[in-house]
Amino acid sequence: LQRFSTWANSHKSQLISPDGYDMEHNEAWPGGRTNHYWFDLNRDWLPGQLPESQARIAKFHQWKPNLLTDHHEQGTDATFFFMPGEPTRVHPMTPRKNQELTKKLGEFHAKALDKIGSLYFTQEGYDDFYYGKGSTYPDVQGCIGILFEQASSRGHAQESENG
């Protein structure tokens, strides 16, 4: 919390800027997605090298969920993505039944979003191959992993294709 408040206070301005090149929209390396070792924990599900991942994986195996959702942000001008991902990028060890259930869940989400007229995409852009991610590790653990990607809401003000 202290680290976040220090960052927020050092980057604030009297004028809120929607400029995509403004500092608050482009984090300096290493960015905010890593732990204090600068490791992306969403790639550590399979290797399980770091204490945070080891604790998360232990809890996953203790709990044995049927469904695990992995939520992220994509570009500001993107709509909304959910699994299944790119059909040609599925790991060969992923059970066929897993992909069938993932597709059924995707159809459920599509129907709900169609009903309210919300834009989305599925079965493109994101893979289901590397088991070290939060949306794919569950696929070989008797669980369904679902990735959700929403448009980024980073910053106090933004300009996008939609205004």
Question: Can you characterise this structure?
Answer:
The chain is an alpha+beta fold. It has a single domain, classed as Zn peptidases (Aminopeptidase, 3-Layer(aba) Sandwich), CATH 3.40.630.10. The chain is built from three helices and three strands; from the N terminus they run H-H-E-E-H-E.
Q: Reading side by side through the largest sheet, how are the strands ordered?
A: 1-3-2
Provide the helix percentage: 25-40%
Oligomer: single chain
Number of domains as seen in the coordinates: 1
Main sheet attributes: strand count, strand direction, barrel closure: 3 strands, mixed
Number of strands: 3
CATH architecture verdict: 3-Layer(aba) Sandwich
DSSP strand content:
5-15%
Overall 3D form: globular
Secondary structure tally, helices: 3
Order of helices and strands: HHEEHE
